[in-house]
Amino acid sequence: MENSIIKVVNLSHRYSVQWAIKDINLDIKKNGIYGLLGANGAGKSTIMNIMCGVLKQTGGDVYIRGISMLNDPINAKRFLGFLPQKPPVLSELTVEEYLNYAANLRLMDSNDIDDAVTEVMEKVGIGHFRRRLIGNLSGGYQQRVGIAQAIIHKPALVVLDEPTNGLDPNQILEVRNLIREIAEERTVVLSTHILQEVQALCDHIWMINHGDVVFSGSIVDFDNYIIPESLLVTMIGAPSID
Ligand code: ATP
């Protein structure tokens, strides 16, 4: 357990009577980009929301660097950053104001916040927009701001729920490159329903269907895996961008 960055053990969740995920097990021990691939409704967001402590599971647990999300969420969350699928709408704040707010939420030392905000804006390429209202940025730049808040405290693990969803092809390429850069320093777990996205980005893939893991393996294993046709039709293969 201690050498895992994140370990998910028998994770299950039920919304009222319906099980969304059942007995999910994942274990990440080294840096890389890890993908949860699945159609709409497969259970990806449910897994990620529980991983990041924003949804309480029905059963099982998540350990971040060996710390239980169930028993010690405050400490477990220190090691992770999260870009939810539907981030809070803070379009009336400037980029700089929002990142200051995010740093405060992370309980960062107030003496470090100005430097951390400047550094992360440079890192994700939004320094020139620091005084721009978030609501006036393009979708791609808004996504960069979302990624910036997820990495401002330099977490070991970054969880990105459908980070390229709704972006145009150029923005998709740019956000993918940014994800690759981030993964040079930390572990990234992302979700997508786009087959080509995991092929372009991920070292390891878990394919989720109706709340179960139906495939787990490296990108090389995945290339040799014959996806059942019933699942294939639910996945979107983006055209030739990588
Ligand atoms: P998407 O790509 O559309 O976001 P997903 O793979 O992230 O899909 P989830 O959002 O985790 O899937 O949903 C898994 C299942 O749980 C679906 O059947 C969904 O309808 C159901 N579900 C999700 N959130 C709720 C909720 N708040 N209340 C009831 N059911 C929910």
Q: What structural class do the secondary elements suggest? A: alpha/beta
Q: List SSEs in N-to-C order.
A: EEEHEEHEHHHEHEHEEHH
Terminal-residue CA separation: 34 Å
- State the low-pLDDT regions, or none: 238-242
Strand order of the largest sheet: 6-7-8-3-9-10
What's the story with the biggest beta sheet?
6 strands, mixed
What integer value in Å does the Rg equal?
A: 18 Å
Q: What is the share of helical residues?
A: 25-40%
Inertia-based shape? globular
Ligands present: adenosine-5'-triphosphate
Number of helices: 9
Oligomeric nature of the chains: single chain
Strand share of the residues? 25-35%
Total strands: 10
Keywords: ATP-binding, Nucleotide-binding, Transport
Domain ABC transporter: 6-235
Protein name: ABC-2 type transport system ATP-binding protein
GO molecular function, one term: ATP hydrolysis activity
Please explain how this structure is put together.
GO terms for molecular function: ATP binding; ATP hydrolysis activity. This is ABC-2 type transport system ATP-binding protein. Residues 6-235 form the ABC transporter domain. It is a single chain. With 242 residues, the chain is of the alpha/beta class. 34% of the residues lie in helices and 26% in strands. The protein is built from nine helices and ten strands. It is globular, with a radius of gyration of 18 Å. Residues 238-242 have low confidence and may be disordered. The site of adenosine-5'-triphosphate has 12 residues, from helix 1.
